Structure formats: structure tokens, C-alpha cells
Fold this sequence. Notes:
Layout: H1 2-20, H2 28-33, H3 40-51, H4 54-67, H5 76-96, H6 102-110, H7 112-145, H8 149-197, H9 202-210, H10 222-237, H11 240-248, H12 252-279, H13 293-302, H14 304-341, H15 349-368, H16 374-388, H17 390-398, H18 404-425, H19 440-461
Amino acid sequence: MTFFLFFVAYAALVLAAGLIFRRRMGSLADFFLAGRSLPAGLIFVSLTASWFGATSILVTTDEAFRTGVRAIWIVGAPAVLTVLVLAVFLVRPLRRLPIVTIPDLVELKYGRLVRHLASALIVWYMVLLAASQMVALGRFLEGFLGWPYLGCLALGTAVVLAYSVSGGLRSVVFTDIVQFALLVAGIAGLLFFLGGRSEAGDVERAIRAAGRDGYLSLFHDFKTSALMLLSFTLAWTISPIAFQRIRAGRSEAAARAGLFGAAAMLALLYAGVVLAGILALPLFGGIGPEETLLSVVIRAKAGGPLGGLLFAAVLAALFSTMDTAINTGALSLTRDVIDQIRPRAAERPVFVSRLATVAVGAGAFLAATGFRSILQTIGLASEIMAEGLFVPGIAMIFMRRRAPLAGLLSLGLGGGFSILSFLSSLGILPIHLPAWPRSVPYGLAASAIGFVAGWAFGRRDR
């Protein structure tokens, strides 16, 4: 009952933030880009909160407890690296292009057919990304509320959709302010608590007692870590989430400053959760709990106000990424699918945008019912973008000429491989492809080969 009351208080807080600060909207840009008026501070807070999700706070602490400092490679290093790459190299070209979404640029450089294929991949990616947060939310809440997994899933999804449907990106951004504050306070409180429970030398003794080889080595068993780093970095560099925040900024300078601030804060947050996982080793005698580490710390170790704060911090990480994924996915569904099929839908942009938000949320909910692994779900989502859109996506930003065949072959081969890999992982297709993240180099190579071949044949035909 205590944690249900904590959840109600948290839900009331984010609903208030999302609904009170909404504005009257009359266009797609109002709903999905907040009128292109976000200052650097809001971009910084929103991007930090939306990028620090389920894998960041739950999986990273578990992996740090189990494997040590190299857990930073899972999502921490790719998140910081991606935001820096975007800030240094991509803010200016993305701000200057006459486009709203990534498929707008795809059509300019590769044609309408490739636009439709890219739109399908992006919507699919955003649905799976939202689903990964729902999986984490359902698993996290069922341990505290005592409800069935589906009931917890439905409860959290309903809260997110309530403010996302009502206020669009502006509501998402203002809930991110609350969630950012809870994240920072929660991780600081967690480190203070764990640090106070262990004396000097306890961690080192626990490492030796548990026989954790390479626990404090950043590059121990780096092969798998490197593949995850590659998959997430490539996927997030071309991610519609960062693209949306860059386009929503009031200026190029505001967008760049917001990204640099987010990179610095993400580095601190990820360092904090990795350190927390390591500091928890003596607390559990080197034997990991069956649930997520933070769930046990909150319920059985911390207790009281600190337990409530940590509970809210985990919810903030999950909600802030879920609402962003749903909002960004709805932008692509509205602009790149519905408007292309039914142009008259643009006459009622806010109404259609709200319907698209519900549709993406419902699709993510259905996907979440079929998965129980947070890392697998977000990994499969990143595979779609890394293999299907990274090569043609980065090339099109700097290309001066149209190259329809290059875009078609690159997206077709890379995206096709990611689809086969996805279906293989679910056991739907009776084929044996390398599982994620080992599949990423193969799909990326297929995409690159397709682009080069298409570019060569396209030049020869001119």
C-alpha cells in the first residue's frame, strides 16, 4: 500500500506538470515541436531525462554489480558519445535543412519510395523503444504493487498517454523537468546511502571473495561491450528523438548548448549508476538478487523517505523515455504515414496528432506484452536504426545530389536484415541468425554494400 501511494503521488506530480503548462495548439509544429521555441535549458533537461531510461538506471546498475566498471559501455558511453557527435557535427546541417522529420530529408535525397520505407522503420523503432520502457515499468511495478504484469503495464501507460495526448511535446518537456530533478536527487541519495553502508576496503574484499575477474578493468571482455557500443551509437546518432529536440530549439545556438549540457550531465549520471552497482557488492555479499538490484535496495535496504525517493527516481527514468518515444513516434506516424496516405488529415493536425499518440502507445503496449527482457527489447529497437538507417541517414545529410538507388538498396538490405534478425529472435522464422548485438556488423555491412552498389550504378546511369 505504501508504494501504491508513492506511485499515486508521483503520477499526480507529472500529470500536473504536463497538463498545467500546456498551451493552445493549432498546428503539427505546436504539438510535436513545441512551436520551435525551446531554450537551451529546456533542451538540456528534456534530452537528459529522455535519454536516461530503463536500461540506464536498472540494467546498468545490475550489470555494474555483476561485471564492474565495464557496464559503462552498455548505454552510458554510447549516449554521451552520440550527444557530442550531434552537437559538434549535426546541429548546423539539421537546423538549416527545410524539413520537419527525417523522412522529409529521405524524400529529398532518395525519393518517395525510400521515404515510405524509412517511415515504416522509424515508427517500428519508436514503438519498440517505448515498449522497452513499458517492459521495465511492468516488471518494476509488479514487485512493489503486487499487481499482475499487464495491470502494471496498463497503469503506467495510461498516465503517460494522459499528458502526452493532451499537451504534446510541451507537456512531455515540462514533465521532464520534474523527472530530471527526481533522477538527480535519487541517484545522489543512492550513492550517499550505499557509500555510508560500506567501509573503506569493503568493495575490494567483496570483489576478491566473489572472484570477479577484471571487475575494475574498463576493457575486460571488450568484444561484446564494443558491439553494444556500436549498435547504440549508430542507432542514436540518427535517432528521431535527438532530431526532434534539435528542430524544436529556438535557435541553432540553443540547440547546441542544450546538447553539450546534456552530454555532461549524462556522463555524471552514468558514472553514478555504475558506481552504485559496484558499491552494492558488499551489501549483498557478492550474490546478486533475483530481482533488479534497485528494486531490492528500495524495498529491503533503504526504506522510509529514501526508499520513496529512489522509487520515484526509477519511475522518472522510465516515464521520461517512454513519453518521448511515444511522442516522437506519433510525429513520424502523423507526418510520414497518415499525411502521406490521407493528405486531408492535415486539415485537423492536432486531432490527428492525438490519435497517432494513442496508436503508438497502444502498439508499444502490445509489443511489451510479448517481451520480458529490457535489454533485448531496446537492443532490437537499436538494431533497426543502426542497420537500416545509419548509413543512408548520415550520407543524406551531407549529399548534394539525389541517389534514389543507393538509398533504396542500403535501406532495403540493412533494414531487411534487421527485420529477419527480429523475426529470428522471436522464433517466428526458422532461421538461425546471430543474436543482437553480434548481428549488428552483418546488417551494417549489408547496408553499406547496398549504398555503395546503388551509388555506383546510379552514377553509371546518369
